[in-house]
Amino acid sequence: MDRTRLDQRRIGWLAVLTAALVCGCQTVRTPEETIAKSNIPRELNKVSMPAYVVEPPDFLVVEVLEPLPGRPIAGTRLVRPDGTITLGFYGDLYVAGLTLPEVKEKIVVHLRKFLSDETLGLIGINPETQEQFAIDPRDSDRVYVDVDSYNSKHYYIYGDIGLPGRYPITGNETVLDAISFAGGLTPTAAPNNIRVVRPAPPGACCEQLLPVNYAAIINGGDPTTNYQLMPGDRIVVYRDPIVRTTVLLSRLAEPFGVVLNQILTYSFTVRSLKSINIPINGVAATRNATATTPIGPGAR
Asked: Regarding predicted confidence, which is higher, 203 or 267?
């Protein structure tokens, strides 16, 4: 009777655990009506990214017209892990955290140690008065700086997705683009449980958790939750609750399966020995008796 009650209690707790896992307690979602009325960038309502900030491991194109003879400055420059680029003979510069106009200004100011202001395009002539005037280093037409390869800005997509990982961002991707690039949802994914986690900018109180209505995006063409991705965004595709419950139950049952398998193996061995009339506890004694029994013509 007591054992029956114990089994009933175990079944009851297992049912409660299963129900909790199926229902799942997730972070409270922001209502889509609130999102639709907000100014969050999304498909059909995208925004331009702020000025690009150079960071490792970006590649920059740096060209200078008429540098020192035999000391050209042209080609791509890797932003090293320490934030510097090399200009060869002219030395190294720290450029991490700067925008392109700031990088250009820093390069021009640095090159004034080697080249004249006329060569660097820092002096202009008024065509009417023929008077010289100073030109801002950022406006020089003798030095060219641009990004050759955008490598430092990314978004991330994880969970039950075909190819989870980190992907470069160009400023135009949406959630639907990201899921397509990552190979689409797997059969174990929960299409109704996808969200974008947006890290808080410096000075903000907390991150944003933006729900994604995947069915509305795909089947209804609704762009409300097809957000424009920003650098650092995390797209999380959660697993279907039924699959999660099945995996958990399988893990809970695995130790019992191992023990049961050992018991069945032992039982099979015992039955096999009994079937050939060999006493289990007398095997060693029988072998010892056989070894000590003399064999030969004089044996008695």
From this structure: 267
